[in-house]
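Hey,

Quick one before I head out. I ran the complex with 2-acetamido-2-deoxy-beta-D-glucopyranose overnight. Inputs first:
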Amino acid sequence: MLQEDVQYYRSGIIVCYRKMCSIINLLLLSGIIHCVSSKQPNILLVVADDYGFHDIGYHNSEIKTPTLNRLAGEGVKLENYYVQPICTPTRSQLLSGRYQIHTGLQHGIIWWSQPNGLPLNSPTIADKLKEAGYSTHAVGKWHLGFYKKEYLPTSRGFDSFFGYLGGSEDYYAHTTCDSLIPNSCGYDLRDNLTVTNQTGRYSTHLFTERAVDIVKQHDQNKPLFLYLPYQAVHGPLQVPDSYVKQYDFIQDKNRRIYAGMVTCMDEGVKNVTDAFMEAGFWNNTIMIFTTDNGGQVLAGGNNWPLRGWKGSLWEGGMHGVGFVHGQALKNKGYVNDALIHVSDWYPTLVKLGGGNLNGTLPLDGFDQWATISEDAPAVRSELLHNIDPMTKLAGKRMFPDTFDNRIRAALRVGDWKILTGKPGDSHWVPPPHLQVDKNLTIPCTNSQDQNLWLFNIKDDPNERRELSAVYPDIVKSMLDRLDYYSNTAVPVRYPNPDPQANPNLHGGVWGPWE
Ligand SMILES: *[C@@H]1O[C@H](CO)[C@@H](O)[C@H](O)[C@H]1NC(C)=O
Ligand SMILES: *[C@@H]1O[C@H](CO)[C@@H](O)[C@H](O)[C@H]1NC(C)=O
Ligand SMILES: *[C@@H]1O[C@H](CO)[C@@H](O)[C@H](O)[C@H]1NC(C)=O
Ligand SMILES: *[C@@H]1O[C@H](CO)[C@@H](O)[C@H](O)[C@H]1NC(C)=O
Ligand SMILES: *[C@@H]1O[C@H](CO)[C@@H](O)[C@H](O)[C@H]1NC(C)=O
């Protein structure tokens, strides 16, 4: 009898083989008993918001992240890892395993007043892990739609939710305004469906405290999935002074406060991982740490030496910070160079958790566990960064018979990356106090009408040598590939703001209005 074939049932009395599971599936589905494989790991998925490539201690020793440095050092650092350029898109791919072109979320974030959300026909990673027997909890930022109750985290596979539904807000007051409709400001923080008044408490402390409570109260007969998307380190720039003191040497005020916010988040991760240790199940826990997009240079973040920043299809917008930690990793303490994307966590974690991918629409993510755990050959050779037909067209169309290069898009094939249309701000931005040669910060090739760029990212990770004129065949074949993807896209869903969303109509609180 193989150990991994044994299933323990919650009652602690019944022990059976995997095959028997289907026989008593009805009981399982009815929630009377739960099937728990002895191998199912707990999963801690930590997301940092707007966290730049140059903002973690192991990329820039000026920023103090002792916990993240240690965990990444003990685990696997992902250095060819990609996310999307902004919040909702990354989170939608993380939770659905599907590209934006397949969910209608190609363009922009979900604004508070937009009746929009991650489509309900895409089961979330939490749905699949819950189905596999996990306790599932979300603590922090949602940003995947809330205009109807069906889109809230507790309707999307999470047993509990503690956090805010929108994209950003004041860290202490937990209030925010939506610029799309006039005079629409409101409070946004909930415990499941109930609004909870936490005015005055800093969100990194609040979310850490809740995550620690969940770990402490967790019934270890079930595996735990804890999704912890911190508010940190997105703007507004706010943090208790005590975290900023050690950064007196940083003169730029935004950067100094931002650094303090990072260090506070690092302490939060320490508290949460300590709680796992104290509860005695850290050694059966897989932790993923990921940013959601590149740093926002206008709010303290930095991605040096990468080009561009948050919101752009340049590397600074998407080449993300990420690592994996856990006893289950076969190789530990190394840097992984395989192409890995945020959409890959869905199949990777669902399979690792003993779940199945039944009932999902075709996934765009790949199971990367062997690649990460054993440094096995890469399974992903291609990555569609995005195609956004709603952004204004740029310049002239080059070829009538393939992808229209006036459209904003980017695609990676092997080491090659193509960008088309208006990819966003293309400057290289060093951190405020770093003295660099001015020539290194000025885009070399940009004319106003340029709408196509080709780079070899392996040789030129900072996108300094534009090669489209040297390799016309590669350009053509990559445009053909974009054309292929474009033909699989669903229409963009980016509805007009709905005045009914205004918190003034709902007791001063953001929440479902339909
Ligand atoms: C949220 O829901 C979970 C699961 O039903 C429950 O355990 C928890 O007590 C709820 N929290 C609140 C504040 O109602
Ligand atoms: C929260 O409580 C404070 C007073 O303790 C009050 O001023 C504030 O209006 C309350 N906020 C909400 C959203 O209920
Ligand atoms: C971490 O725990 C310590 C000790 O309880 C506490 O003082 C600190 O505020 C916590 N940090 C965060 C970020 O929650
Ligand atoms: C994990 O920790 C528990 C409790 O401390 C211990 O019994 C078990 O042997 C450990 N497992 C591994 C694989 O280290
Ligand atoms: C998943 O689908 C396959 C093929 O349809 C089926 O054989 C299998 O039993 C399903 N698994 C579960 C857990 O539903």
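Residues 253-278 form the longest helix (26 residues).

Talk tomorrow,
K.
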